Structures are given as structure tokens and as C-alpha cells.
Amino acid sequence: MGCGFGYGCALLAGHASAVTGVDRFGEGLAYARSRYGGRAAFLRSDALALPFAAARFDLVVCFEVLEHVADAPGLVREVRRVLAQGGLALVSTPVRGASGGVGDPTHLREYAPDEFRAVLEEGGFGGVALLGQHLPPGTWDVHAFSARLAGRDPVNLRRLVPPRLKAAVFSLLFRLRFGTSVRAAAATTITGDLAGAAVQIAVCRR
Predict the structure, then answer these.
(1) Total-model pTM
(2) Where are the domains of the chain?
């Protein structure tokens, strides 16, 4: 859910018999189909109304979507609806206030860990385990850099640029600015400690 450009689905496809990615972002789905279509299926859909029968999937991954929707418990209920009995759901969202003031204007709401757990419970998941994703130093400088680049395109002309070219240009500008690759800068650690975590990940079983 919220598969974006599909690289996460491609990684999952190396370990699963079948993978389906869902997003509302048409440009991202077009790229995902062109790049990873042989490994996964990609569908355009609202996360609150998935076009699947109940108990359809053994694993549901929903990373950093919750903060973008007004009805967070409704999204969690939809995750639970399509999850098979005994299946596993991995749901993540930023920890409220963790960005140090580098906010994302597309976030409708961010959650403290107790609020996140309450949303998951309201959506039907009990006994949730929370993990913390810790980012390397300088990550928020990276986010600020990305926001500045987007701000220099106020009429969104970048939507006309092919995704592969856009990614290549961003990677070049990123390396020139930070002296490292996007992949290296994105290296994170996940622990059971939420103190100082930027993102919280819920491990939920049905």
C-alpha cells in the first residue's frame, strides 16, 4: 500500500510467490510497471477502498501512508480486512516532531508512539509491537534539500520529465551537494528502542 515507484515491491518479489503494489500516484505506477512489471503487479487504487477480497494477502506492507490520510483508523481497518488470518502487517509512520522542524506539508497528521498504537487498536489490531527506525546524521538536511528542489518548480514542470531521467538528475545533484549516494545516505537501523527514532514501525498479526 503506497508503493510509489515500486522498488519495495521488487525487493519483496525476491522472497514472495506474488506481490501487488497499490498507489494513487499515476506517474509512480507507470515507472513501477516499466521497471518492475515482470516481478510484481501494480494497481491504482485508494488505500481506503482496496479492490481485493477479504483475507487476500499473507503480508501487507504500508510504509509511511498513514500520515497522508484523514481517516487513519479506516486505513488500518482496510489493512486488516485484506490480511489473511495469521497474516502479518507492517505499518510505519514518522514519529511526531522527529524531523526537527523540517516538516512535510503533505502530512495531515503525525503521531507520537502512544497515538500510533491507539490508531492501530481502533483499526482492529491488538498486541502490536513497535520498532524504531533510526536515521543517519544529516538526514534532515537531505529532506530540506529535496524540498528546496521541489520549491524551484512551482508549476510542477517535473511531471513532464520521464521518471528515470528525473531520478538520474536528482542523484547527480544529491551527490554534488552531499558527496555521497542517495542509497548510502538512506542507510538506517531498526531497533526495539523508540527513543530518538524518526519512524515507528508496527508489527501486527491478525
Answers:
(1) 0.79
(2) 136-187
